[in-house]
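User: I'm new to structure prediction. If I give you an amino acid sequence, what do you actually give back? Let's try with this one:
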Amino acid sequence: MLDGLNENGYSLTGPLLSAAQCRDLIALYGDDARFRSHIVMQRHNFGAGDYKYFAHPLPPAVADLRERFYGPLTQVANEWMKEMRRPTRYPAALAEFLARCATAGQNRPTPLLLRYTAGGYNCLHQDLYGELAFPLQLVVMLSEPGEDYEGGEFVLVEQRPRMQSRPIVLRPRRGEGVVFANNERPQAGRNGHYRVKMRHGVSAITSGERYALGIIFHDAA
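Assistant: Good question. You get back a string of structure tokens that encode the predicted 3D arrangement of the chain. For your 221 residues, that looks like this:
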């Protein structure tokens, strides 16, 4: 499930949520009581579309994915920190990491639902939100490409030192996810590891409606 992270900075997960679970999460979008914040991308020049950050308590399916992926990803994250000569190390338990976030003033939940309609897109960006940031995150597609929408590919752009940027275009199906580096990752070179910058976004939706679930492991300030 996590194959390719070290080589490419991303990994396709295969199915994580059933079609029914995807529909249930999409149905939450109209219930403002389940969310702490609503962002309209156009107002901030982030793109075209909108997204909502969940409030506590997180929906069970969202909390389960956040918990289930954090543990295995800490092993990758801590190895990356060593290879990039960063002093940060991440605890094995999500609760302990979130407690560290809270101590740093980051106590707002970051899992979110994103919605795009025809013409919508998301500019290339990084989801950092504060001093503490976990180096990997997860996005799960809730809509079916080719059925619910057209266009709207998930885009990663990799910037290696002194090289032109490399685009990566992915099209996960409904219920499938992508784990990816949200800031920088190590890349093996002739003289050891060097740091590669990563950004992500969504290409323009040409028709239909596209929903996705974002799982960010650090909380926000």
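You can read the tokens as a compact description of the fold. Here is one thing that stands out. The two ends are 31 Å apart (CA to CA).
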